Every structure is written in C-alpha cells, then in structure tokens.
Amino acid sequence: MKLSDFFNAGKFGFNGDIFDVTPPKPKNFNVNFSFKMIAAAVIIFIAAFCGTRSFYTVPLGSRAILFRFGRYIGSEEQGLHFKAPWTEVVRFDVQEVRRFEFGEKTDVPGRAYVQDESEQKMVTADSKILLISWVAQWKISDPYQYFITNNVGAESNYRLISGLAEADFRKEVASMRYEDILTTGKVTLSANAKARITNTFKSLGVGISIVDVLISDVKVPPTVQQSYNDVETAKQAKASAINEAEAYANKTVEEAKGKAQVALNNAEAYKINKIADATAVSTRLMSLNEMYVANPGLVRTNLWYENVGDIMKQLNIVFVDGSSRSNIFLGNVPIIER
C-alpha cells in the first residue's frame, strides 16, 4: 500500500506501528431532552413571576383600588389579597391626617411658617376686617372619589378643593360679628366652619372627610391696631366703672333692706306690746266688773286708792318749814331746788 493510501484512510505508521489519525465523530445530541429542560425553566420562571405579582397586601388603616389595563375594576380593604398579574394596585392611607393651611403655611416641616396676608384678610358681618390663620384637617374617606372622580392629587384639583374649603370658612366669618370672633366666638366659628365644609364636600362627592377646623391666630390689621387698643382700653374702663357702680348699688340696697327690716321688726314688736297691754287691761276690766257686781263698795274704794296713788306719784310735793328754812320731802317725790 502506498503512503498516500494510509493518509487517505486516516491511518499513519511509524516504526512498523500503524496509528488511526481519523478525527473522532461527535456524539449524538438529544434534541427532545434539551427542549423539555428549557420549557420547564420557562414555566418555572413564569410561575414565579405570576406568584410574586398575584398576591398583594393592603396595610392596616389603608384601602386599595384596582386597575386592569388602566380601567378601574374594584377596591379592597386591608389584608392579604389575590389578583391577576396584569392588575395594578394603588394604595391609600385613609387614617393619615392631612392639612389645608390658610394664612400661615410651610412646605418643609420644622421651618417657620410663612405669612400670607391675602389669605388672612376676611370681612366680618359688621363690615370689619380681621386677619385669621386657620387649618382644616382632613382624611381620605373614599379613595375612588378622591383619586378617580376628582383626582385631588393633581395640583389644579387640589387647589380647587382647598379653595372650596376657604370659601366656606369665609362665609362663616361673614356671618359673625367682629367682636365675637376676637373674644369668645372662635369655638363657634370653628364648629360652624367644619359643618359647612363637611356638607360641601359630601354634596360634591370629593372623597374627603373633615376631621377638624383649627383657628391658629386672629388679629386686627396693623394699620388699625392702635385704634383697636384704644377702644379696648375704653371698654375696660367702662366695664370697671359699671362694676363699681353695681357694687355701690348692691351695698346701698342691702343697707336699705337692713334698715327696713329693723323698722319692720320694731313695728312688729310695738304691735305685739300694744296688743298685750290692751289684752291685759281688758282682762283686768273684766275681772273688776265681776268683783264690782259682787261688792261695789270695796271695788270703788280700791280704785280710789289706786288712782290717788298714781296721782301722787306724778306730783312734786314739798313741805316747807318756815323756821328752819329747809325743805322737808314727803315720800318718794322728785327733788325741787329752791
């Protein structure tokens, strides 16, 4: 055999040895097995993806609304829930207290409030101006109305809703007198404003509930502050004078009542004494009449002695001794000087 034949046959000899130099043939590849592995991996991946996207939780104090391809399909309360992987969930904290601030506001908590006099100026029922800063605290009551119907989260809609609250508050201020708001009417103003804003939001379906309306500051404009102070000083002086007059009147009335009561008591005592004396005289006369019927002479004699004794007590009797030129007194009679 020729050498070329060895090469052509894939064999090669050296020193009498023959080597097989033909390249090895590749092993058979199992196409069906590899396809099954890939399919299983894809299925596991899809299952894991769907599993992570199909369960969701709504935290305590929150509510969620669901969308499928951008369309609202329902809402859920707090807890663990199942959904289709392509369903979107938007959660809302319905317990968080939010704020509409008017007159004083800040974008960063902890910083000083910025005064806004245009929001503070309000007209009262007696056409006077007050500077009032206040806050409306609110919560999300209906996420559907809040997010979908009104989209309060949008800047323009948020300003519209807060503007409604401000308009209702101004209406309440316009229904109250200047002095009442400055003194004792703040609580009434807060309660009435809360009720009015609540009714407005409820009738419009805003999806917001008012928690409270708080008045942080009420003052008069700086241009009339001095005049207001003068008026307050005059009012205090007037109140002081009225209090002093009332105190004097009360004291005088009480003294007059005391004197009147003393006079009434004396008159009552005089009346009782006179009645007692008349009763005693009447009783004595009745007794004398009975005795006179029984023994007229004895009664006349006793009456004569009694009358003479009474007369003698009223006389000033003096016996004069002409020789000694001294007074001699008889009985218990008054002393008469010479």
Molecular structure report:
A hairpin with an 8-residue loop joins strand 9 (104-105) and strand 10. It contains nine helices and 15 strands. It has four domains: 1-60 and 81-88, no CATH class; 98-220, 2-Layer Sandwich (Tetrahydropterin Synthase, Chain A), CATH 3.30.479; 230-285; 296-329, no CATH class. Strands 8, 11, 12 and 13 form a four-stranded antiparallel sheet that branches. Strands 5-4-7 form a three-stranded antiparallel sheet, with no helix packed on it. Strands 1-2 form a two-stranded antiparallel sheet. With 338 residues, the chain is α+β, with helices and mostly antiparallel strands.
Salient structural properties:
24% strand; four-stranded antiparallel β-sheet; 15 strands; alpha+beta; three-stranded antiparallel β-sheet; 338 residues; Tetrahydropterin Synthase, Chain A
